[in-house]
Amino acid sequence: MRNGDFSEAASSGLPEGWTNESWLKSSTATELTWAQGENGLGSASIRSREPNDASWVQSVGVSPSTWYRVSAWVRTENVGTERMGAYVAVMDTFFYSEDLRGTRPWTPLVLWVKTGNLDTSIKVALRLGGYSSLNTGI
């Protein structure tokens, strides 16, 4: 994975290698931000004021029929408890980690993924809410 610590900036102003996506495109619904800390590491944030499915996404090259471990440190504030919270996922699949809801301290989330016979890339996402599971919070 490229720039997994969010330390590098791209000319677009986003973290190098990452894009963001959301079902509701309005900046009043969801704000996706990124910042570098004093230690050089960065952090990405999703703040959904309206129920939404929003994520930071990176396409990652993989080998077919291979196991991969994807992990992230995640914290939440006031994430709704009735829908999918904050989690790590592979887009367009049913592979996802435990989700965090409510207000939680920094917590490691881990996802194991086995690629298919023909897979050469996957889209890894740091996500708040999900398909048919729109949520709010940070």
Task: Explain the overall architecture.
- It is a single chain.
- The protein has no helices and 9 strands.
- It has strands spanning about 20, 30-35, 40-50, 55-60, 65-80, 85-90, 100-115, 120-130, 135.
- The mean pLDDT is about 95.
- Strand 2 and strand 3 form a beta hairpin.
- The strands form 3 sheets. The protein has a 4-stranded antiparallel beta sheet, with no helix packed on it. Strands 2-3-9 form a 3-stranded antiparallel beta sheet, with no helix packed on it. A two-stranded antiparallel ribbon has the order 5-7.
- With about 140 residues, the chain is an all-beta fold.
Features:
single chain; 138 residues; mainly beta; four-stranded antiparallel sheet; 0% helix
The overall pLDDT, averaged over residues, is 95
What percentage of the residues does DSSP assign to strands (E)?
Answer: over 45%
**Rg of Cα set:** 15 Å
Q: Structural class of the secondary elements?
A: mainly beta
The count of strands amounts to 9
Task: Name the poorly predicted regions.
Answer: none
- The topology string of helices and strands comes to EEEEEEEEE
**Tally of individual helices:** 0
What's the N-to-C terminus distance? 24 Å
Q: Helical residue percent?
A: under 10%
Largest sheet: 4 strands, antiparallel
Apparent shape:
globular
How do the strands line up in the largest sheet? Answer: 1-4-8-6
Brief overview:
The protein has no helices and 9 strands. It is mostly beta strands.
Topology:
Blueprint: E1 19-22, E2 30-36, E3 42-52, E4 54-61, E5 67-79, E6 86-90, E7 102-114, E8 121-128, E9 135-137
Antiparallel strand pairs: 1-4, 2-3, 3-9, 4-8, 5-7, 6-8
